[in-house]
Write a structure and sequence with these properties.
Largest sheet: 4 strands, antiparallel
Radius of gyration: 37 Å
Distance between the termini: 94 Å
Protein name: TIGR02677 family protein
Pfam families: DUF2397
CATH class of the largest domain: Mainly Alpha
InterPro entries: CHP02677 (IPR013493)
CATH architecture of the largest domain: Up-down Bundle
Number of helices: 17
Shape: flat
Strand content: 5-15%
Number of strands: 8
Helix content: 55-70%
Organism: Nonomuraea guangzhouensis
Strand order of the largest sheet: 3-8-5-4
Length: 506
Amino acid sequence: MSSPTQEPQPFAHLSAPNAALYREVLRTFVSAKERFIVHLRPEDVAVELRRDSDEQLAGALDKLVEWGNLRADADTGRVTTVEEFHRKRLLFQLTQAGQAAEQAIAFYEEAIGRRGSLQSVALADIAEQLQSLALLAGEDEPDPARVHLLLLSLAERFSSLADNAQAFMASLRRAIDFSDGDVDGFVAYKERLIDYINRFIADLANSGARIAALLVELEGSDHERLLVLAAQREAADAVPDGADQGQAQEKALGSWRNRWRGLTDWFVSQDAGHPSQARLLRQAAVTAIKQLIDTVGLLNERRAGRSDRTADFRTLARWFAEAPDEASMHRLWRAAFGLTSARHLSVTASTLEEWQDVPAATPWAQAPPIRISPQLRRTGSYERRGKPNKVTDRTRARRLLLEQAEREAAETAAARARLRTDGPVLLSELEVLDPRAFRLFLGLLGDALAARHPDDAEVKTVTSDGSLEVRLALVPGGDLVEIRTDDGVLTGPEHIIEITDLMVAP
């Protein structure tokens, strides 16, 4: 048997030459261990890698043994003669350090490459598991095994939901920030992404309200008793470490209380100053939709009037090629790049007199010296004495800004007038909205959804500028509706909406 004599270095293969081969060999051993195969011969590794068992593979196995990733044992299972016994035959298996290193590398690669997702299915699973727990809480003696398994499944689904939502919002932020690449691809991606987020917002509003109601019901049905049953079952399997079973149970119970608190804080709002994480996620998702639409608008504006630097340089090169003489090329160069004389450089009066009649083609070695101001040479700055510059008249600029502000105010007032409803109407009855009215409508919808509590079917709120009041009520059993806009189609559950313009006198 051979084993590494030095301290294990299970990550050394990542920075060594042929690192790709080392990674493939170790993944082969990890895959074999998942199939409950502990030892592999070199020819087994070669078959898994679909290559010949050559000296390079043998050398890779030896280096992995040297670094402590693998362990090599003598292979005596197939020895039938003395010659075969003296021939070097080895069996290789993963060491504890090598397996731990592979698990760490796999976890790192998964975390780095993770994009996250908004899991509507997880919301439904959490609601079903809470419903089952509510039924068990109503029993006099609930089954500890069923309670424990339900709580474990609930904690796993909730943790996956929260982690994926966080990763998704982070990846969405990166997608919006780096949207200057393939404009057409980003626009197509935006259409699918907005539809995806809209579906999740609808599911989160409906399932989130159900989950919050179940959590409140469970807390009213002594949910602590269920947590104690799960803690007792975990403490029974705890490995003795000097502490008694009571301490192990108390530790497990504290862990379950913390998980339950996290679940409650995620779905149940405590008060107006402490909204639930689900509500904050809804607000972030609505904000992301608005940012996506704004980003696409900026990209379209940029694409309609953008300046292609490559095309500009090609045009400039053609102008240089078509210039009739060298003097024309010099004029074109100065006009294009502005590399004229250094007008900011201040020199003495005597220098100006000496250079007045010097031809432009005079070499520097034969030209008179340039004497700059002692103050400029000493301090690096030069102040010209004399009367101050004239005050710039900005009357025309202020008038343009005023006209722009009045135009934007008129457009906003027109958008409010288009959104105003004559009483309650269905979302499906709204007419086609132009881009400005649609952006204003999205802001109204986001404010209303953010103000609605999980157990509320109707909400009334006023915009932050006090110009509009919106009342939103969910239609029970309503179908999905589509709102047509110039930017696309907004899909969501059917609601009754009433928008009142508070700027108009009754």
